[in-house]
Amino acid sequence: MKNVGKELGESYMYAPNTPTPLPKYPTVLKVPTDHIDPEQSRLAFNIGTNGGYKVKSLIGLAYSAPYLHDGGVAVGVDEESEIGVPGTLMKGKLPDPYNSLKAMVDKELRQEVIKANQSVPQLKDVHVEGIGHEYWVDRTSGFTEEEQEALIDYLLSTTSPNE
Questions:
Q1: First CA to last CA across the chain, in angstroms?
Q2: Fewer CB within 10 Å, N side or C side of the chain?
Q3: Confidence of residue 48 (pLDDT cuts 50, 70, 90)
């Protein structure tokens, strides 16, 4: 990531009224960036740093499942049978935000998600496993089920930067 600044160029997009399939010579527009604070761009892409990555905001978690850098933490409404990407997205089922966040903080449930994801060779080939941090808010780290639920409820309640 530390060299990404050297690789970035102008951003372009097709005109909003461009039909699909694309015509032979679609109208291409430069993405306006004059309104973006240069310091924020520098931070977002780690330009001039030693690398790393910028994490997503916690705002809107109710709308952004599956979770983690690889999108591998997905659990459906039925947390017994709709586990991981194979039990949700690969079956045409959307991940449930509550249960997917629970898998982010519950060690046992995350292990099930990882196991399900690793059972599909195609997911392993593209590095979708659901493996990430090991910071748990569950009984293994001294938290009660009520405390875990309170955390998840709070995270799902942040839907606007004004809240």
A1: 33
A2: C
A3: low
